[in-house]
Structure formats: structure tokens, C-alpha cells
Amino acid sequence: MSVFAVEYVYGAESAASRDECRPAHREWLNQLVSQGSVLASGPFVDNAGALLLFVADGEAQLNELLKQDPFAAAGVISAVKTTQWNPVIGVLAEHADR
């Protein structure tokens, strides 16, 4: 299993749609936390995007998960950047690829 940092970018015009979809989006994320697939998630303070930390077998599995996000279905994500990450120090170090 690998850790992936996922950055969502939101367009300013999508604020109302995000507000409408947010409960379903957070419910989806909380289910993934319970399953061990999401380590952390939250919006940037400027509301221009969010950072999500996932655990997945690979990028293909991660991409399949991201397609299921209610925000993706609503079309409120302008851009997505995924980067495999190796957290070797700190509270997430137990998830490091060894």
C-alpha cells in the first residue's frame, strides 16, 4: 500500500454546488476513513481547493476511488493533482513504503 497526496482545485463559480454536495462528499470520505483508505482530508483556508491523503494499492485504484467522490460527480473539481508520498517522519510514518 502506498500513500497519495491528492490536491483538488475548485473554481470560484462552483461554491454553491460544493455547498450543496458537501454532506455527501464528507459522508463518502468518512466511509473511506472507516475502511482505512483516507488518512486525512480538508479544505485549504482560502477555499480554492483541498488536500486529501489516501492509502491505495496504486494509482489505478486511487483513480477509481476519486471517480466515486460526489464532488467529482457534481463537476465541482477544476483540477486534480495526485502524488505518491512517503511519510517517513511523524504521525503518518507507519504508512511509509518500506
Structure, described:
The protein starts with a strand and ends in a 13-residue tail after the last strand. The chain is built from three helices and four strands, in the order βαββααβ. The radius of gyration is 13 Å and the shape is globular. The protein is 36% helix and 33% strand. With 98 residues, it is α+β, with helices and mostly antiparallel strands. A hairpin with a 5-residue loop joins β2 and β3 (49-56).
Strand content: 25-35%
Number of strands: 4
Share of helical residues: 25-40%
Please give the alpha-carbon distance between the first and last residues: 10 Å
Topology of helices and strands:
Blueprint: E1 2-10, H1 15-35, E2 38-43, E3 49-56, H2 59-67, H3 70-74, E4 77-85
Antiparallel strand pairs: 1-3, 1-4, 2-3
